Amino acid sequence: MATLFSSPPISSSASTAGTTTAPSKPSPSSKPLLPISSCKPPLTASLTAAAIAAVLTTTPLPSLADSNTNYQVYYGTAASAANYGGYGGNSNKKDSAEYVYDVPEGWKERLVSKVEKGTNGTDSEFFNPKKKTEKEYLTFLSGFRQLAPKDTVLNNLALSDVELQDLIANADNLTSEEKKDENGQIYYVYEIDGAGAHSLISVTCAKNKLYAHFVNAPTPEWNRDKEVLRHVHESFKTVGSF
Predict the structure, then answer these.
(1) N or C: which end of the chain has fewer CB within 10 A?
(2) What average pLDDT does range 20-32 have in this prediction?
(3) Distance between terminal CA atoms of the chain?
(4) If you compute the radius of gyration of the chain from its CA atoms, what whole number of angstroms results?
(5) Taking the mean position of all CA atoms in its chain, how far away is CA 218?
(6) Which pTM was predicted?
(7) 78-87, Cβ contacts within 8 angstroms, sequence gap of 24 or more
């Protein structure tokens, strides 16, 4: 708050009986009073503080891509429920692997139960511990020598996956395409853009099995990490096709 100052006193004529004194003139050495500046804080300091506050509140969380994400290769064996060894996995997975995909550094593995493997064919799953619904997983079904039409394959996958059913039902956009790798192996690639989530799916047949690799993320995480999630999606291959 600015400090208020009173004006200097004004000199008046002095009167004595029968005598009049002329007003006194200021001494040549007297100097006028300098104006007093306000005590308000500098405007530039206030603007700087406001700008810093705005940056701190609007800066988004760092994405996985911003930190130069490293990946680890996961070797999946697609073992049947009857031959599933339980928790701990196979120490020699690399030699017996039927498929591979990349896992972002820092993601955690969710151990799949024998019952789950037998009911919906889930073979492996990894998730982001900061947001567990940002994940990748693989399912497989035995007895498939080749792929059916693209629409049929997607609908059949949804029969045993409630989350996929909901995503398809509420999708804003759904695309599908057929790709071939360098060995001529066919992959169906689906991308589903829903109101609250995004999904990338890659499906192929090999060794008399159908393999389906899923990458799912809520929309905010998809928008932040799409570069990494696409890398993970494109890293899936069956052994012998890479």
Answers:
(1) N
(2) 46
(3) 74
(4) 37
(5) 9
(6) 0.70
(7) 78/123, 78/138, 78/140, 78/209, 78/211, 79/123, 80/117, 80/142, 81/114, 81/115, 81/117, 81/118, 84/114, 84/117, 86/114, 87/111
Give the CA-trace dihedral at 48, 53, 55, 56, to 10 degrees. 140
- How far apart, in whole angstroms, are the C-alpha atoms of residue 96 and residue 94? 6
Query: Tell me: the pLDDT tens digits for 208-237?
Result: 999 999 999 999 999 999 999 999 999 999
Spatial contact of 129 and 106, defined as CB atoms under 8 Å apart: yes
For residue 28 the two structure tokens come to: 């040549």
- The arrangement of strands across the sheet holding 71-76 comes to 71-76, 99-104, 237-238
CA angle 186, 99, 91 (to 5 degrees): 170
Distance CA 162, CA 182 (A): 34
The backbone region for 58, taken as left when phi is positive above 0, alpha when psi lies in -120 to 50, beta otherwise, is alpha
The pLDDT of residue 130 is above 90: yes
